[in-house]
Amino acid sequence: MPCETFVEDFEVITPLIAIDPGTDVSAVVTWDGAKVAGWIEPNQSCLNRLRTCPQGCSIAVEMIASYGMSVGREVFETCLVIGRIQEICAARNIPCRLVYRRDVKLHHCGTARAKDGNIRQALIDKYGAPGTKKHKGLTYGIKSHIWAAFAIATFISETDKPI
Known about the structure:
Elements: E1 16-20, E2 25-31, E3 36-42, H1 43-50, E4 58-63, H2 73-92, E5 96-100, H3 101-109, H4 116-127, H5 146-158
Parallel strand pairs: 1-4, 4-5
Antiparallel strand pairs: 1-2, 2-3
Helix pairs in contact: 4-5
């Protein structure tokens, strides 16, 4: 049974949900290999929607990694959000995979030094330009952190690593 998307304006398109968590808001993408839907919403709203996602969903969430640098409050608060996502998934028996940004960069760009703009361009090269309102491309409407969530979703779908 496919997972319903979390925003009523989107049609049901996929059992794969990718999340780029943040301190206060998270970017969420649903992806089926042909259609993408994405949005940004407050964390509490995202968590509430995960609690009602039907069985059959798979969740991929970006995980924080340490590279030896000092971090601040925002990183720790994001870690708490990731833990809450995992807790909800575990309680509902929904597969949840943590995805490290480094792996996504290597997959899409071939280097761990890639920046957000490089990943965005790699996704556009692979899936097409966003297009215009009149001639929408596959990635039309994707902006900001939704690109990061889309990169996670496509990483999962393009690798043979099941959730």
